[in-house]
Design goal:
46% of the residues lie in helices and 15% in strands. By secondary structure, the chain is α/β, with parallel strands linked by helices. It folds into two domains: 4-237, Alpha/Beta hydrolase fold, catalytic domain (Rossmann fold, 3-Layer(aba) Sandwich); 249-367, Serine Threonine Protein Phosphatase 5, Tetratricopeptide repeat (Alpha Horseshoe). Helix 11 (297-310) packs antiparallel against helix 12 (315-327), helix 12 (315-327) runs antiparallel to helix 13 and helix 13 runs antiparallel to helix 14 (350-367). The radius of gyration is 27 Å and the shape is elongated.
Amino acid sequence: MRKLVLLLSLATLPLLAQDETVVLKLPGMDKVEVKKDLRFDATHTFDLYRPHGITAAVPVVIFLNGVGRPDLKEWGQYTSWPRLVATRGIAAVTHQSEGNDAGPQVDALLRYLREHAGELKIDPSRIAIWACSANGRVGTELAAKADNLRAAVFYYSAMNTAPKNVNLPVFVARAGLDALSLNQGIDRWVAQAVAIDAPVTLVTYPEGRHGFELLDDTPESRLIVTQTLDFLQHHLTTAPTPRKEPMTLSQLQTLLATGIDPVIARLTELRKTNPKAYVLQEESLNSLGYVLLDDKVADGVKILELVATMYPDSPNAHDSLGDAYEAAGRKEDAVREAERALALLENARPPRREAIRRSAEDKLKRLKQ
C-alpha cells in the first residue's frame, strides 16, 4: 500500500503519494549530477541537480516547497522532475522548508541562489519556478511579486494570489478529476490572467487525477510532462520577446474607469510612440466606440472622433462617427460625416464597400426626413 501524506494537513486538498516518480522517463536521467544538502540559511538545505557534462552557467528551475515539509525534496516527485529538467540542459533545485509560512524561506533561497550563482554555475537571470498542489499558494504569490523570473509552472495548484505580472509566461496543468474547489480556483486564476493579457498556457487533462504525472501512466500524462519541459526549455534558453503592446485593450478599459479624457490623452501619446499598436488599429477603437455608445454616448463620440482623425481617409471611420453624432442628437454633424463616408467609398475594400454605402445612405434618409 502506498504511503500517503496530506499536504498542509488540509482535508480540502487531495492526497499525494510520497514514493511515486514521474511516469515519463528520458535517457540521461541517471547521469544527472546531484549535490545534496547544500545550506542556504542557518537551518535549511537544498539539492542541486545539474545537467551532465556542462560546466558553463545554466538556467535553473526551483521546485517550490511551500508546505513546510523538511523531507519534501526526498519524495519521488522531487527527485524525478529535477532529473527530467536536467536532461534539457537546465539545472534544478529542490529545498527544505518548515512551518506554516514558507514564503520567507523561499525568498531566502532565491537570494542565496542569486548571490552564489557563480559558484553554483547557474544563470541568475534565467530562473523559473515549478509548484504543485498546496505549494501553489507560495508559487502564485511569488509569481505575482517577482519581476525577475523567466517562467512559472503550476500543476493542479492552489492558486490563491491573483496574477499581476503581464510579462511572466505561465504554464498551468489542470487535472479534470481533481477536487472541484481546486479546479474552480485554477479556472478563476486563468480567467484573471487572460483579463490582463498575461501569457498563460492552460492544459487540461480531463481524465487526470491530482498527481496525474505520478499516478496515471498514460500517453496524455507523458505528453503534458513533455510539453512542460518544452515550455521551460523555450523560456529559459530563448531571449524573451519584448511586449510590442505598451497598452492592451483590457488596460484601456480599466483606464476608462477614470474618465474618457485620460484615455484620449493616453491614446494620443501612444500614437506618437507606437502608431502600430493594436489598441490604435481602426477596428479596435471603432469597436470600443460603439460599446461606449450604448450607455456613455459622449464618451463614444470622443473615441469615434479620434478614430476619424487618425484614419481620415477611411469611409467606415466617418460612417461610424456619423452614427455617434446621430446618437448624440447632432443631426448636422451626422449628415456631414455620412456624406464624407460616401465620398470616400473607393477607399474601402469591395466586401465592405456596399455595407458602408447602405449604412451611410440609410442614415441620410433618416436625418433628412
